[in-house]
Amino acid sequence: MQPKPRANGTAVAEFILLGLVETPGLWPAVFVLFLFAYLVTVGGNLSILAAILPKLHTPMYFFLGNLSVLDIGCITVTVPSMLGRLLSHKRTVPYAACLTQLFFFHLLVGVDCFLLTAMAYDRFLAICRPLTYSTRMSQTVQRILVAVSWACAFSNALTHTVAISTLNFCGPNVINHFYCDLPQLFQLSCSSTQLNELLLFGVGFIMAGTPLALVVTSYIHVAAAVLGIRSVEGRKKAFSTCGSHLTVVAIFYGSGIFNYMRLGSAKLSVKDKAGVGVFNTVINPMLNPLIYSLRNPDVQGALWRVLVGRRSLI
Prior knowledge:
mainly alpha, three-stranded mixed β-sheet, 76% helix, 3% strand, globular
C-alpha cells in the first residue's frame, strides 16, 4: 500500500513519530521502562497460558487463553517498534508500515472487544442457565464465537485501513505520538476527513456499543440471579467468578472511550500521551494476567502447580 499522490506529484512517503518524550536524555529511561513492561506483559500472559492449557478446559478458560494471546499481540504491535526507534534514534516510519500497524492494532483490539462479550455470555449461561450450559456453550459454540470475533474485527480494521489509504498526505508528516492511529492521521491529511470521522464514529458505535450493551445486559441478568441465591457463600462464589471479568471490561472500555475522546486533540502533552496512550496500549495488556491470577483461585492453583513442577524438574 503506497501513499496516494496529488496532482503535483508530491506525497508523504513516511511519517515522523515524536514518541512519548522528545528529550533525548530521557530516551534510555523510557527504553528500560517499556522493555520491562513488555517483558512483564509477555511473561505474565504466557504464564496464564501455561497454567490453563494443561488442566483448565472449561469455556471460561478457553476464552481467557485467547485473551492472553491477544494481549501479547496488542502490546507487540506498538512497543517493539518504539523500542527499535529509541535504540536507532530514528523516528521515521514508512507510510505502509504506519498503516500496517494501524490495521493490526484495530484488529487485535476489536477481537478483544468481542471476546470480552463472549466471556460475559459464558458467565450468563453458567449462572442463569446452568442446566443447559454444557450444550449451549459446547466446544463448537466456543470456536464459533471466537471465529465470529475475528471476522468482525477483521472487517472493522480493514474498513478503517482502506478508508485512511484514500486520504491525501502531502504536507505535515509529524505524528505527536509513539504509534500510528486514526485521530493523529486525520490531523495530517490534506483532504477532507469528514467521511472518515463519521465512519470511525458509526462503525465504532456498532463495534464497541453493541458488545458493551450485551455485556451490561448479561450482567444485569447475572446480578438478578445471584441476588436470588439464599446462601451467602453461594452469592460470594458466584460473584467471585465474575469479578475479574468485570474489572477487565471496565478498564478496557473506560480507557478505550477516553482514548478516542482525548487523543483527537491537536496538542497532546506528555501527560496525555503517557496517561491515555500508554494505559490503552501497554498497561491494559499487563494488568489482565495480574487481575485474573490474583482474583481467581483456579488460576492461582494452576500457576502454583506449574511453578512446583518446574522446581521439581530442576
